[in-house]
Specification:
Layout: E1 6-7, E2 11-14, H1 21-27, H2 31-36, H3 45-62, E3 65-72, E4 78-85, E5 94-101, H4 110-126, E6 130-136, H5 140-149, E7 152-163, E8 166-175
Parallel strand pairs: 5-6
Antiparallel strand pairs: 1-2, 2-3, 3-4, 4-5, 6-8, 7-8
Domain N-acetyltransferase: 11-177
Protein name: GNAT family N-acetyltransferase
InterPro entries: Acyl_CoA_acyltransferase, GNAT_dom, Ribosomal_N-acetyltransferase
């Protein structure tokens, strides 16, 4: 599948390019991103290049990861990375959403706006019938975004996530097409 470009009133969601490597590298220095997401620590420009050129490109080509960068319409600043994962272990039509937000862009509702656009795309284009959100127990920022989009918390799944070799408990939420406003 070819990567898409999605637009919201305040944002443009588009594939990352080589021109975004410095912004990705800077964002991934944030302790919260490193605490809650499986980015390499320390995070280098080479890690950003690998993510953009290998992980994202392969994901679109193999239709297993649909990742986009979120940028402000006014100024083109990096807001977040947001992706939809279609893993082999998930039933057909069930897609997981994941995201991180650059520290300076938090608190503006940008990631919820971007996630809503991605969810609409997943239901419409991918034919998803259920979206799942999974985050480490205690990741209140991620839960705030998911809740704003309309996800319903289903509970805690024990030892469900692998974060740098450690098994951690996760919060699981779901979104059905009827949950989107």
């Amino acid at each position: 599948m070819e990567p898409v470009i999605l637009e919201t009133p305040r944002l443009i969601l588009r594939p990352f390019t080589g021109a975004d490597l410095d912004a990705i590298t800077a964002a991934c220095q944030d302790e919260a991103i490193q605490r809650w997401t499986p980015v390499p620590v320390p995070y280098t420009r080479e890690d950003a290049r690998f993510f953009v050129e290998e992980v994202c490109a392969t994901g679109w080509r193999e239709e297993t990861l649909f990742n986009l960068g979120t940028f402000t319409r006014d100024g083109g600043e990096l807001v977040s990375s947001i992706g939809l994962h279609q893993g082999l272990t998930r039933p057909s039509g069930v897609v997981e959403i994941g995201y991180w937000t650059a520290k300076e862009q938090r608190g503006h509702g940008y990631t919820a706006e971007a996630a809503t656009a991605m969810c609409r795309w997943a239901f419409g284009t991918l034919g998803a019938h259920r979206l799942e959100w999974l985050a480490g127990v205690g990741n209140e920022g991620s839960w705030a975004v998911a809740r704003k989009v309309g996800f319903i918390m289903e509970g805690t799944v024990r030892s469900r996530m692998d974060l740098r070799g450690a098994k951690i408990d996760g919060w699981l939420g779901s979104l059905l097409p009827s949950d989107l406003g």
